[in-house]
Amino acid sequence: MVSDTLSIDLLRMDGLSLAARTGSGHWLSMDTSPAGGGHGAAASPVELVLAALAGCMAMDVLSMLEKMHARVEGFRIEAKAERAPEPPRVFTKVVLTIRVRGDVKPRQLERAIALSHERYCSVGAMLKPTVPIEHHYVLEASTNPALNPDTEIGVTRNDG
Fold first, then answer.
1. Do the strands 27-30 and 17-22 form a parallel or antiparallel pair, or are they unpaired?
2. Are 56 and 124 in contact (CB under 8 A)?
3. Whose CA is closest to 94, among 85, 84, 86?
4. Looking at residue 131, what DSSP letter applies?
5. What strands lie across the sheet with 8-14, from one edge to the other?
6. Residues in the chain, pLDDT under 50
């Protein structure tokens, strides 16, 4: 069994503004709101946890869709987390909405999401024991007329 060790070197910049250098040499900033004693100059650590979950899921899903030979033209994840009202204000529920545009079949996307959630996403695996994580998806047809002959170029529709 292979074991990886990750490292972070965290530095205080000013007040509660922090800079972290990862073991791979990348920098990221953290801060909190002025109400929390910070400057509001960067994402909070809790926001970074939510971003890490969405990023982990995105990398898994995109790589699996590529292996399935699906053509992804657009990809986005909207992540929302509800938090406990009292400290330590942990996540009480996370909802991820995965939006994909392209030549992707629903079963391909459903399978990629399920594999990420059940097996591959390390961040999700760490959160799942303590917080329910819901996944929803929106699949939009390709805007490429060769892949989607029903697409009307230059026409905007409002189906809502």
1. antiparallel
2. yes
3. 84
4. S
5. 8-14, 17-22, 27-30
6. 150-160
Rounded Cα gap, residues 21 and 147, in angstroms: 43
The whole-number pLDDT of residue 147 equals 62
Q: Which residue has the tokens 């697409």?
A: 151
**How many CB atoms are closer than 10 A to CB 86?**
7
| Calpha distance 62→66 (Å, rounded) | 6
**DSSP secondary structure, 65-129, as one string:** HHHTT-EEEEEEEEEEEEE-SSTT--EEEEEEEEEEEEE--HHHHHHHHHHIIIII-HHHHHHTT
pLDDT score, position 142? 85
How many Å apart are CA 152 and CA 117, to the nearest integer? 35
Position 160 scores a pLDDT of 37
> For 109-126, how does the pLDDT look when each residue is reduced to its tens digit (9 = 90+)?
999 999 999 999 999 999
Q: Which residue has the tokens 């026409």?
A: 155
